[in-house]
Design goal:
Blueprint lengths: L25 E2 L11 H11 L13 H13 L8 E4 L2 H12 L5 E4 L6 H8 L3 E4 L3 E3 L2 E3 L2 H8 L4 E7 L11 H13 L3 E5 L20 H5 L1 E5 L2 H4 L7 E4 L3 H13 L7 H13 L1 H25 L4 E3 L6 E5 L7 H12 L1 E2 L1 E2 L10 E5 L4 H19 L1
Parallel strand pairs: 1-13, 3-4, 3-7, 7-8, 8-9
Antiparallel strand pairs: 2-10, 5-6, 9-10, 11-12, 12-15, 14-15
Helix pairs in contact: 1-10, 2-10, 3-4, 3-9, 5-6, 11-13, 12-13
Length: 387
Amino acid sequence: MGYNFDRIAGRRNRDSVKWGCSEAFIPMGIADMDFDTVPVVREAIIERAKKDVFGYTELPKDYREAVTGWFERRHGWKAEEEWIAISPGVVTAIILALRALTHPGDKVLVQTPVYYPFFSAVARSGCETVSSPLVLADGKYRMDFEDLERKAADERVKVLILCNPHNPMGRVWTREELGRIGGICLRNNVLVIADEIHSDLVYSGSRYTPFASVCEEFAKISITCTSPSKTFNLAGLQTSNIIIPNDKLRREYSISLENIGVSRLNLFGGLACSAAYTHGEQWLEELLEYLEGNRDYAVRYVRENIPELEVVVPEGTYLLWLDFRRLGLSGLELKRFLQHETRIIFNEGYVFGEGGEGFERMNIACPRSILDEALCRIEKAVRKIRI
């Protein structure tokens, strides 16, 4: 490998949200990576910082070309440059889109267990969350299309928030699955807000398909939320690209954005996005190889050393969904047990909604030495229960 993902980045005492905890703890909850970002981004920011003025700036001239070129090269989706709207973040974009496209009292479908900020985004829009739980069978999650069809038929349901790849369990939805979900939404006049922020983090054997790329009809009813932040570890630069092929939906989203006074992206965020998408592909390929190694190592370790746990093998993302239900602890009991016995900070499964109780989300985007230490701590903690 040309890049060193084993290096300990040393994020404590650097205003890190994730690493602001006690030094006795290993934080493996918040979804950002403990690797240095792609060097070309750092170099581009340093070069720009040498200039003396940081006044109002437009996006780099090659910005939109970099975004559309990335999606065409990596994922076979030829988006148009004029489809791109901006946002400081994906969750912000979801809130703005819901405010633009719904009225108080409308309902929004989600597929639980799912990324927990979706629930607050729906609530802040004055809407009601409707859950269509995913089904876990033989170690893999699948959509319950009959339940989804039944709930989408409610005339108060106006939007489905699709998570693709799915957070927290790492499913990468197939083209066939997306086709079925899109058909349900078309039949019931339901719009789709697709959170596709993890789209670049997909392992061998799986392929990410943008929902809007499946067919023109799906593109017309969808808003696709993307960002380089997960791919290149740029969350602190607050730069997201919201791809909206439908002119009417894009206008309504843009009005919602203007209503909160957002007219441009951070100077360094735009620069970083353009640099990463233009020059960061080799770094990403090496990152994916390392992450897949971490995934395989963690899955093997759990199966060989902690038989009380089940692990859902992710097809994408750098998140591991661990099933602790055999320990017989409630969600809060499990949280207290793990914090006290492992000194690891996870994301508790119950915050992800229906079907999450008894699970923990574990971020494995870290040097393997940190991952190994965390797994050893979990094994020792579970061993105490065995005794």
